[in-house]
Amino acid sequence: MAQQLVDRRDQDFVIWEQINCAEILNLEKYKEFSPKASSLIINEARALAIKELLPLMAEGDTEGVRYENGTVKVPLSFHRVFDLIKEGDWNNLSVPTEMGGQGAPAFLGAAAAEYFVGANWPLFCYATMGNGTANMIQLYGTPEQKETYVKKLTSAEWGGTMLLTEPEAGSDVGALSTTAIKNPDDSYTLNGNKIFITNGEHDLAENIIHPVLARIEGDPSGTKGISLFLVPKYFVQNDGSLGNRNDIVCTGVEEKHGIHASATCSMTLGSKGNCIGYLLGQEREGMKIMFNMINGARMSTGFQAMTYASSAYLLAVNYARERIQGRDLADFADHNAPSVPIIKHPDVRRNLLWMKSYVDGIRSFFYYMTVLGTKGNISETAEDRERFGDLFSMLTPVVKDYMAVRGHEVCIQSIQLFGGAGYTKDYLVEQYARDCKITSIFEGTSGIQALDMLGRKLGMKEGTVFMNFLGEIQKTVDQASQVEQIQDLAVKVEAAANRLGEVALHLGKKAMSAEFKVAFAHSLPFLHILGDTIMAWMLLWRAFVASKKLSAQPKKKDLAFYEGQIKTAEFFLNTELSAAMGKMNAIADGCAAAIQISDKGFGGL
Ligand SMILES: Cc1cc2nc3c(=O)[nH]c(=O)nc-3n(C[C@H](O)[C@H](O)[C@H](O)COP(=O)(O)OP(=O)(O)OC[C@H]3O[C@@H](n4cnc5c(N)ncnc54)[C@H](O)[C@@H]3O)c2cc1C
Prior knowledge:
By secondary structure, this protein is an alpha+beta fold. Helices cover 57% and strands 12% of the residues. It has 20 helices and 14 strands. The chain has helices spanning 8-18, 22-25, 35-53, 57-63, 78-87, 106-140, 143-154, 286-322, 346-378, 382-418, 420-423, 429-437, 446-457, 464-481, 487-511, 516-521, 523-551, 556-574, 576-589, 593-596, and strands spanning 66-68, 71-73, 158-160, 179-182, 188-198, 207-216, 226-232, 234-236, 242-245, 248-253, 264-269, 275-279, 324-327, 339-341. A 5-stranded mixed beta barrel has the order 4-5-12-7-6. Helix 13 crosses helix 17 and helix 15 (487-511) packs antiparallel against helix 17. The structure holds flavin-adenine dinucleotide (FAD).
C-alpha cells in the first residue's frame, strides 16, 4: 500500500541500519524502549496521525483560527483530537520522566513526531510547545516554579509560548522595549507589546504560561540587559488552582500565507498597568536562558520542514505512479502507443529523484543530529560530551535553515510534478508548500542563521569543531572507499569536503578582515554549500550501508530499496553536488558586487 507522510521503510533504515539508534537503547535509562517496543510505538503514532490528525489538516487550513474579543478559537474539530494526543501522552513522549514525560530517547520522539507534524503541525504544536517552556523552568526555575508549572506544561493541561518579537525588535531581539519594574514582593510589573506570538492565546488549554523577554528599568541596552519572566495567563494560587486573570491579552491574530490553524497573536502586556511576571533565573540572564528554548525550536523548525517535504514527496511519487499522461518517449512517433503513467517520463523521474535525494539526505542528517544531541548529554566522559555537544551546536543552523529551504523547495517541486492539479486545493501539496515557507522565517531567518554560522559557529574553539566535523565525513569516505561499487562516489564526497574546508578557511579569514562585509554577503550561500556537502555525506553513508546489505543477499522485498539508495547517491553526487562545487568556487572568488552596488543602484526609485 502507498505510504503516507513518512516512508516507513526509509525511516527504519535510517534509525536501525544507518544511524544505529539501537546503540542509544542499550543505556539503562532507556531499557523500556527495546527496538521492538520502539517500533510498536512508531506504529501507533502512525495510525493516530493518519486516522485522526491528517483528516483535519485541510479543514484547519480553511477554517483557520477565529479572534473574538481577546480570545482565540481554534478549529472546532481540533478539540477532540487534541484530547486524544493528550490521552496517549504523545505530547511528551521524549520528555524526561522527572518532568512528567515518558522518557523515550529523542530519536524515538522524533520518529513518532514525523507522523504527527507531517499530518497536522498546528494541532501537534498546541500540544507540545509547553515542553520548551517547561524545559527552561526545569533548568533555571526555583523549586516552587518547577512544582507549579513543569508537569502542567508537559501534560499539555497548560500551554506554553515564547514572547520575544516586538514591532521594532524582530531579528534584533536586543532592541526590545518591553519593561519590567520590580515590586516589593519580588514579582515584576511588565509593560509592552509583543507580536507574532505562536499559540499566544487559544481555547485548548485552561491556562497559558508565557516566558517573556523584557528589560528591567535601568538595565543596559542590547541583549546584555534582557531578563526572562514567567507571565501566567491566570495566576496560580498556593493550592495549584487557578486564580485571577493576569493583565496580558491577545489583541488580534495574523492573516497568513500558511499554517492558518496556528494562532499567531499580538499580545499586550500591562494595558491596565497590572501585568505581573516572575523572574526566571537571574536578572539579565534572559537571553542565555531563552536560548535553551530557541535552540530546541530551531531543531524543531528544520524538522517541521522535513516532515512537509517527506509528506509532499510521497504524495508526488504516488501520483506519478497513477497519473496516465503521454506516451513513453521511446514511442514518441507511434500515435497508437498507449499512454503511460508519468513516472515513465525522464523529466518526471529526474524531479522525483531530486526530491527523494533531499528528503533522504535531510532525514538521515536529522537523526544523526538527534543522536549527537543525546550523546552530548549522556556520554560517559566529559570529553565525549563536549565533542558531541559542540558538533551539535555547530550544525544547528544547518538543520534550521538548510532543511527549511530545501524542504520548501521539495514542496514546490511536488506541486510541479502534479501539474495543474498541484496548483489546486485538491491535493495537500499546495498546503504543504504554503505551510513550509514559515520555517525559513521564524526562529531566526535564513540571514540570521547564516550570520550565526559564519560569525560564531565556524570559528568555535579556533575552528577545531569544524575540523572535527570534516573528520566525521572522512570516516564515511574511508569506509565507502573500500567498496568497489561506490568508490567513485567516495572520491567525490572527499573532494567536496576538502574544498568545503578550503572555502571555510578562506571565508573565515575574510570575515575577520577589512572585507568582512563581502564575506557576510556570501554567508548564506556558504551555509547552503555546507548543507549540500552534508547531504552528499549522508547519501554516501546510505549507499555504503545499502551496498553492504546487497552483498549479503538481502530479502527480495528489500532489493529495490537498497539499490535505490545507491542510485539516489549517484544522482545527487553527479548533479547537485557538482553544482555545489561550482558555488564553492564562486564563494571563494568572493564577488563584492552586493556590497559595492550603491543603495540607489538597486533601482525602483
Ligand atoms: C507565523 C509566525 C510565527 C511566529 N512565532 C513567534 C513566536 O512564537 N515568538 C516570537 O517571539 N516570535 C515569533 N515570530 C517572529 C519571528 O521570529 C520573526 O518574524 C523573525 O525573527 C524575523 O523578524 P522580523 O519579522 O521582524 O523581520 P526583520 O528582523 O525585520 O527582518 C527582515 C529581513 O531582514 C533580514 N535581516 C534582519 N537583520 C539582519 C541581519 N543582522 N543580518 C542579515 N539579515 C538580516 C532578515 O533575514 C529578513 O530577511 C513568528 C513569526 C511568524 C511570521
